[in-house]
């Protein structure tokens, strides 16, 4: 392998990964890059393990889904011959584990050169995926804060609550019904009120709440 040329291709891929508009797009670019840059790699996918559940993300072809489902049924893996499969950890997040799995249809197709290339690709991919996930989480946090503020405004106007009382009503409904606060806020924005009666702190609100 011409490592200078490979380094240039890797640098181009890294820039491309960081420019992707979403986590899903980043995942798809990672797996596509694996088939393009790793010698012997015919298919790739990202395996998300969440507790006992296994989910296949951004597979380049159905072979990947098939092998991942087989691995889940068997209860351990890999189900593919080790000479035709390589796996690399991309991230851990609580109980979630994400790995980049590379597959070849030919025994012995993966060499030390293939493994070295895959390690470098996985390293760049992990950085890009972390960046994409962080950006997505920040966007979601901003959207959630905006929706909670909008929901509080609805309750303040319709039930004559103060800002503190409106937030307390949302939080109380969230805790009593084991529903995330952002979901309660979404319900208020869509339906005009929280299911059940919203109370002032220690008193009934003026008017009727939903």
How would you describe what is shown here?
By secondary structure, the chain is an alpha+beta fold. The chain folds into two domains: about 130 residues, GAF domain (Beta-Lactamase), CATH 3.30.450; about 55 residues, Arc Repressor Mutant, subunit A (Orthogonal Bundle), CATH 1.10.10.10. Helices cover about 55% and strands about 15% of the residues. Strands 2-1-4-3 form a four-stranded antiparallel β-sheet, sandwiched between helices. A hairpin with a 2-residue loop joins strand 1 and strand 2. Helix 2 runs antiparallel to helix 4 and helix 4 crosses helix 6. The radius of gyration is 24 Å and the shape is elongated. The C terminus is likely disordered.
Task: List the keywords.
210 residues, alpha+beta, Beta-Lactamase, Arc Repressor Mutant, subunit A, 2 domains, four-stranded antiparallel β-sheet, 4 strands, elongated
Can you summarize this structure?
The chain is α+β, with helices and mostly antiparallel strands and 210 residues long.
Q: Low-confidence parts lasting 5 or more residues at pLDDT below 50?
A: 198-210
What order do the strands of the largest sheet run in, or round the barrel if closed? Answer: 2-1-4-3
Beta-strand proportion: 5-15%
What top-tier CATH class of the largest domain fits best? Alpha Beta
Rg measurement, Å: 24 Å
CATH superfamily of the largest domain: GAF domain
Layout of SSEs?
Layout: H1 3-18, H2 23-37, E1 43-50, E2 53-57, H3 62-74, E3 85-93, E4 96-103, H4 112-159, H5 163-177, H6 181-191
